[in-house]
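Lab notebook, bench 4. Still working through the backlog of constructs that have no structural model yet. Next entry is a single chain of 87 residues. Request: give me the structure tokens for it.
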Amino acid sequence: YKFNFPYLFDETQEVAKTYEAACTPDFNVFDADMTCVYRGQFDGSRPGNDTVVTGEDMLRTLEDILTGKEISKAQIPSVGCNIKWKS
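Model written out:
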């Protein structure tokens, strides 16, 4: 697709299953050791709730990583469509 950043195309769904993905979108942030330190919502916006899209939940995690702060364990799960697993 000529993206100018690294991405994963998980054709076998092995990675999604390893990280127990449940719905889309499901956001994950990894630290320098490739440990998943955040799994949750992008922000509090939802279709039809009139909340502005800010990405604040994920941005807070990224800022904490960059400044060396402890990552909050209080993470709100994503809400979306469930994943349709291949057979």
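Notes after review: The beta strands are 23-24, 27-30, 36-40, 81-82. The mean pLDDT is 89. Flag for follow-up if needed.
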